[in-house]
Amino acid sequence: MRRTHRWAHGPLTVCIASVALLPAGTVARAQERTPVSIVDGVVNAICQKQIVLLGELPTHGEAHTFDAKSQIADRLIAQCGFTAILFEAGIYDFIGFERAAEGRTAAPEQLDNAIGRFWWTRELTPWRRALFDAATRRQVVVGGLDDQVSITSQYAKASLPGLIAAASSESTAAECRQTASRHVGWTYDVRTPFDEREQLRLQRCARHAADAAAVNRSIDPADRVMLESFARYVDRQRPGAASGRDESMYRNLVWYLERLPANSRVIIWTATVHAARQRGSLPQVPLGARVFERWGDRVGTVGFTAYAGYTSMAGRPRPHSLTPRENRWKPRRRANPPGRCWILRSCGQSAASRRGCLASSSPKRGRITLTPSS
Q1: Torsion of CA 121, 126, 130, 136, to 10 degrees
Q2: Rounded CA gap, 351 and 92, in Å?
Q3: What is the tally of structural domains in the chain?
Q4: Which stretches within the chain are classed as H helix?
Q5: Local structure of 247: helix, strand or coil
Q6: Residue 23 lies in a domain
Q7: Which of 61, 240, 245, 268 is least surrounded by Cβ atoms within 10 Å, i.e. has the fewest?
Q8: pLDDT (tens digit per residue) in 168-207
Q9: Most distant pair of Cα atoms in the chain: their distance
Q10: Three-state secondary-structure class, residue 67
Q11: Lowest mean pLDDT among 110-114, 121-125, 206-210
Q12: Host domain of residue 175
């Protein structure tokens, strides 16, 4: 699999938000580590929280953000007593990884598959290996909140068809196994397209299996949550779904918190649009708003954004320039972004300036300043 990293220019900003959503932008490629003074400032501001959401741009492919987030996560675990890190990634393969770790058969590739290829960048490779070691030694719990099945969800592909068949009636088990297998492997073709009939069949199989498992206490609780997560995911493939993805992630977060010791401290690695504490113009109430509504001041939210330059989706090398529509929040002398903000990096237009761009680490309230490259 090709590793990805991001070129971009323009200032990168990290904000500890009180209630507001920060818009997406672009970030600079990491040439050096995030300044310790910035990591200190962020960690000191959120160290006493119980749940911390670490956002990032929805492109999920920004090297400097990854470096900052990994350092912040390490410090929260080492110094502030956090014992779990949950990713915006499918819950299925994290359950598979947990089972393999309990049987002492876990491999680093299993954790990589669970985290997903958005975070397969070379900048995070040492951090993922350290996380694997900590997880297999039971020093930290790793998990996934999402209900989606991704291209790297190997455990989901191997286990979900059998789980659905086992929870189905004898008359529908074989058909439901085949239907689920087609979807998780995406093996549709001209003879069996993913049309309305197939969608209804998949929805019927997934929902019936989840409902049957919910009342069958002999089924492993982790299997039940996988079946229910998959049923919610399949429900959203149809128009008029009752619940959205953020609600589904929230429900899986509650499941993890119920399994962990009381008052466990948890990091959530996600995108800023999901970490946001207010809905704003988003189509659904974000995960962060749901978490804040329930746990209030015990929640800390850190969002990363930028307001100039270029960006590209993770795994896609073609960049595009930010447009004014994407750039609604811009730093001005009288700007008043919520909470505290730091400028991580300010880069010039030229390639030479991008390679040597410097960071400013002065925390500011109420306005933003930045130090250009010299």
Answers
A1: 60
A2: 42
A3: 1
A4: 36-46, 63-80, 91-102, 108-115, 125-136, 154-166, 173-185, 196-214, 221-235, 245-259, 272-275, 287-295, 351-355
A5: helix
A6: no
A7: 240
A8: 999 999 999 999 999 999 999 999 999 999 999 999 999 9
A9: 72
A10: helix
A11: 121-125
A12: 154-251
